[in-house]
Each structure stands twice: as structure tokens, then as C-alpha cells.
From TrEMBL:
It comes from the Eukaryota. Mg(2+) binds at E119, D157, L159, D160, D286. This is inositol-phosphate phosphatase. It catalyses: a myo-inositol phosphate + H2O = myo-inositol + phosphate. Its EC number is 3.1.3.25. The keyword Hydrolase applies.
Amino acid sequence: MTMAPMGIRLSPLGVAVFCLLGVGVIYHLYAGVFSNHLSYFRQRKKVDLRDLLAVSVEAAQLGGKEVKRVREEDTLNEKSKGETKEGAKELLTMGDLQSHRKMYNLIKNTFPEITVFSEESDSKSDSVSWSRTIPDDILKLEKGREVSPDSITVWIDPLDATQEYTENMVDYVTTMVCVALEGKPVIGVIHQPFTGFTAWAMVGQGTNMKQRSSYNLNSPKVIVSRSHSGEVKNFIHSAFGNNTTIIPAGGAGYKVLSLLKMHSGQTKPIHEADVYIHITYIKKWDICAGAALLNALGGHMTTLKGENIDFSGTPLNKGGLVASVEVDHKDILTKLPNWDPSKK
């Protein structure tokens, strides 16, 4: 007598239970592996601020090469983006765009998780990558301050002083990068394309800039924007007296450098000022790098009312600004007349 082979039949419910058991076994076998990979990924996403400073310097210098090349080839192709509140034309040139493409993409290609704001916008990408070179003076800074990319905002000005750039007043022209941590500027880079000099600072770590030996608040030299020097003259004379020297100049980056000691790498003359004042709205990519440089030297950049500027969120700073170093900043603020920065 022969017997048919016996088989095991599972009901649909049994199949489901069997599958769940299998998944459970797999999960327990590999949960530790998955956990380790996730932990590594989280650690890898941290950003070292010294590396970010080196990338910022390289980006500013790379953008500066484009700015200089376009000016020397006379291929500006300038056009108007509109007008400032002071009625000055806001110009856009190929120098602005080419510099933006290099600077923005270098930073984003290196640190894709961080937020980057630029004065310009462009749909063209660039495969430019960080050279992995850290300049010797930056290499001396302490390594290891790693921060979450969520806490970082980077502000780029691909070409500061575009109006002066079109007029071939290139001493005023800079490219700038600033890194703000939780809204506070901690890294600032201001590069002068036509001299090749780069000023940099990391707050609490070091800078290649210095204060001058003396500043004069009894009869200060105040540097201001060329675009609204008429109205700001009355404001400054009310604060410091009619004999105050007022220096109209282009570019916020240039104005901050005028407060500091001339570096040996700065091969062209630069104005020397005791205070930098701006009485209307100004964009954060114009001033963030300068704020970091001043803060690294114990200086200050505040609104006209003495408020700290939050370098996160929207690009517009509506409170005007006062910038100084190695002087009594509060004393300056007390001398300023009441002023509404929304006025022209």
C-alpha cells in the first residue's frame, strides 16, 4: 500500500504570520547595522568651521577672478535691476553673474546641506569643487568646532560696488562671503579682486586684519555711501558737528576695510575712517562679512538704535547701521539724532 506524500498547507493568516516572523528576524539581525550607518551619516553631516572658512576664502577669490576678467575684457553687458531706496540704479553685469556661479556653486557643492543666500540668482549650475587647500594662516586655527548645517546661514555678495565697477572705480570692488551661526556672524571674508588681497576672520579664533593705532571721535572721519551722501551729511553733522569729515565711498566691504589697519597685501591706497554709518535699508549680504571682521577685532556693527543685526531669515536689514572698532560704540550711538531708516 502506498501513501501520498503529505504537505503542509498554510491559511492566508498563517502566511501573514510567517512573513511577519521573517521580517522580525531580519530586523533584529540588521538593526544594529542600520543604526551604525545612520549614526555615521549624522556625524558626517556636521560642518567644521575651519573648513568652511577655507572654502569661503577660496570662493571669494574664485569669484574675484571672474569679476576681474570680465572688467578687463570689457564684457560687462550691464543692465538695470531696478533702483535703491535712494534712487540709485541697481546694476547687474556679467561680472556679478559669473562670480555668483562660481561662489555659490563652490559652497553648495562642498556643503550641500547648508543654506546659502546670494545677491544674485541664476539657473546655471557649475561643477566647481573645493581644492581641499587650507591656507597656512587658517591651518593654524583650532580645528574641531563642528556645527549642525541647520544652524548655518551663508551670505554671498558676488560683486560689491557694482555701480563703481561699471565706472571702472575698481578700488571699491570686493567679493564677500559671510557665515552666520544661529544668526550671529562668525566667519567673514572680504576679497579685493583688483589687488588680490583677502581679509578674513573667524570670531574667537583669529583674523589676518588689525586695528589701527588710533581713532578720533572728537572730530571723526565718517565713511558713508556715495549713493545718498547728501542726506547722510545732515545726519552726521547733527551728530558730530559741522566740521566732521565725511568720506563718500562705494561698497560696504570697502567701507569696513577703511576702519582697519592697511595690510601689507593691500597695494593700493585706501581711505581711513573712524566710523561707518548707513542710514537707510541695506542687504545682509552687503554687511555680514564686515560684521564678522569687526566682531573678531572687538568692534561692533549695530543698527542705528544699537540693536544687534540678526543675520538669518530675510535678506533686508531695515535698521541702518553703525560700525566701529576700538572706540566707545555706545558713545557714538548716543550722539545720533532720531532717524527713520525707511526714509530716503
